[in-house]
Specification:
Shape: flat
Low-confidence stretches: none
Strand order of the largest sheet: 11-15-16-23-20-19-17-18
Mean pLDDT: 90
Number of helices: 18
Distance between the termini: 29 Å
Length: 583
């Protein structure tokens, strides 16, 4: 995927093409007024006030045609430098440009770029002539608040991209189409996995039966793994008192990302953004000996964060989500071994899911940001150095990122690049000396004295919601058999003669814990078989006279036209083997 913004030549090309778009808009919609048209990673956009006119997707070809006409005319692009007073005079009829100019300091030399009968403010640089923008494409239209403020007017935003060679543009557009097909929001809707509703609220996804099945399988999978490794699963409430978050430090450092406080009968509560404060209190509930440590408290927990509207993205970034969370309370001497155990668990899980393209990121604090991070420099230096040392001893290849730490400690993030180009954090491991101090956690050491434990925060699947989004985009919705909400689809050729056999077969498969459905709709056989492929069901069984008479099943796997006839027992063994091997 090309990052337009980071490529100097493409940056200039797209900046110029944004003006080409505005030039064409001005010809077609003479009353149009323009806000800003920056270059972004995916190309460029321009925010436009068209008054009573509305541009729709079907209007984009007309605008492209005008852009091509201006491009072929080969108009020179000239840079003009203006004083603030001259700029105010030149753009006196455009309130958006006046707003920009008035916010500039006195004495500023303001630049504008002119091509034929169109001129607009811009820092530049630009191409030399309109002819150099030959290969471009307008991608979509959306709305955007003026200055990003919901109190302001909604402008029309047109997105586009410009690339040097026609072949590269074609390849890029094909990639964009592939990304659109892989987008988890589209797949989630098409495969009936989750839905969102403005009536319920932005960023509050609802999991439909098939999605709930996927989540249930994931929860059982990771819970079983954790229990086998000595984790103790708990359940804690999805809200807590304001005092809890003042003690943890979230109120001071994370309040802006939390939902507003609820006050009832003089009691103040908030929806929890994470689970560590509850787990700290749980640990403190009992006196602990060094012999008990490490103590591993785990939870599949619902959390809530007030993400900005523009940041909300399906189930990849939501305001209500579920975390596979755990907190390991250990002695300082146990840090290395426990950290190693967590990394081994991450690698084990990634092996089961077939993940290969991921990187470890050591996320550190920004020492100059006193607002975001706790101010205990000694504990920060200690925890960052220990984490770095552990990673080196384990031979883990990692890179460092300043300013990406949690507010209470450094962390190891596992970064993956999704199939549609998003940089996603799947798993995290954090080393924390700060919360044990704030909650005054202790254990009795070998000498009978009170000592302070260290906490390792870790989330293997991270947010289950984000994990499912990543899986959908990675697999294009073709989930492995063990994770597919429907593993087998049975299609009777004729309901009158074959449906009873199909029902018996369904009962037999269900007894073996295989997820199965029957498609007995009065539709043509070919249509129902294509539907099974569209739904991305791993195995489709077509049951006709031969299968009923011979007590067999005839199956085909997703994406294949080949069919195979085997006994029911052999088919059950095939499915169960795939489930056991996470295939």
């Amino acid at each position: 995927m090309i990052n337009i913004k980071e490529n100097e030549k493409l940056n200039i090309l797209n900046h110029s093409c944004a003006h080409l778009l505005a030039h064409a808009i001005k010809h077609l919609y003479p009353n149009a007024k323009f806000w800003v048209g920056p270059v972004i990673e995916e190309g460029f956009y321009y925010d436009i006030d068209l008054g009573n006119d509305v541009i729709r997707e079907e209007d984009l070809p007309k605008i492209e045609k005008e852009m091509k006409k201006i491009s072929k005319s080969n108009k020179l692009i000239k840079r003009i430098e203006l004083t603030k007073e001259e700029a105010l005079e030149m753009f006196q009829e455009d309130p958006y440009k006046i707003d920009l100019i008035e916010n500039m300091e006195e004495g500023t030399i303001i630049s504008a770029y002119k091509q034929d009968d169109f001129i607009d403010l811009c820092r530049g640089p630009h191409m030399e002539s309109t002819k150099q923008m030959k290969y471009f494409k307008l991608l979509k239209v959306s709305g955007a608040y003026f200055k990003g403020d919901s109190k302001n007017k909604v402008l029309q935003r047109i997105y586009g991209i410009c690339i040097e060679k026609e072949e590269d543009l074609t390849n890029h557009l094909n990639l964009l189409e592939e990304m659109k097909e892989r987008d988890h929001r589209k797949l989630g809707k098409d495969l009936e996995i989750f839905m969102v509703s403005d009536l319920v609220g932005k960023g509050l996804p609802m999991w439909l039966p098939k999605g709930a099945t996927i989540r249930r399988i994931l929860q059982r999978y990771i819970t079983d793994k954790e229990i086998s490794l000595g984790y103790q699963h708990v359940i804690s409430p999805s809200l807590g008192s304001v005092e809890l978050y003042k003690t943890s430090g979230h109120w001071a450092h994370y309040k802006e990302d939390m939902f507003p406080m609820m006050k009832l009968d003089e009691e103040e509560y908030v929806l929890r953004p994470m689970n560590c404060p509850h787990h700290m209190v749980m640990y403190k509930n009992t006196l602990h000996s060094y012999r008990e440590l490490p103590i591993k408290i785990a939870e599949i927990a619902n959390d809530f964060r007030y993400e900005a509207s523009g940041a909300v993205c399906g189930i990849e970034r939501a305001r209500a989500f579920t975390q596979n969370d755990s907190h390991i309370f250990c002695m300082p001497s146990q840090i290395k071994q426990e950290f190693k155990n967590v990394i081994n668990l991450i690698l084990d899980v990634y092996h089961d899911f077939g993940f290969q393209n991921y990187r470890f990121r050591l996320s550190l604090r920004d020492k100059n940001d006193k607002e975001k991070y706790f101010g205990n420099d000694y504990l920060w230096e200690k925890s960052e150095n220990e984490l770095r040392e552990v990673l080196k001893e384990l031979g883990v290849d990692f890179y460092e990122a300043e300013g990406e730490a949690a507010f209470y400690g450094p962390k190891l993030d596992v970064q993956v690049k999704s199939a549609i180009g998003h940089d996603v954090t799947l798993s995290t491991v954090q080393l924390d000396y700060q919360l044990p101090e704030r909650f005054e956690l202790t254990y009795i050491d070998k000498s009978g004295e009170k000592a302070r434990p260290v906490v390792i925060h870790r989330a293997i699947l991270g947010s289950l919601d984000r994990f499912v989004a990543f899986l959908l985009e990675e697999t294009k919705g073709i989930l492995p058999t063990w994770l597919s909400p429907v593993q087998v689809n049975i299609i009777p050729v004729n309901n009158e003669y074959h449906l009873d056999y199909c029902k018996k077969l369904k009962c037999q498969l269900q007894k073996e814990q295989i997820r199965v459905e029957i498609d007995s709709r009065e539709e043509k056989l070919g249509y129902r078989m294509r539907e099974s492929q569209t739904k991305k069901i791993p195995y489709t069984l077509v049951i006709g006279d031969k299968e009923v008479e011979s007590n067999l099943v005839n199956y085909r796997t997703h994406g294949s036209n080949d069919t195979t006839s085997i006994s029911i027992i052999d088919f059950i063994e095939l499915i169960q083997k795939n489930i056991q091997n996470h295939k």
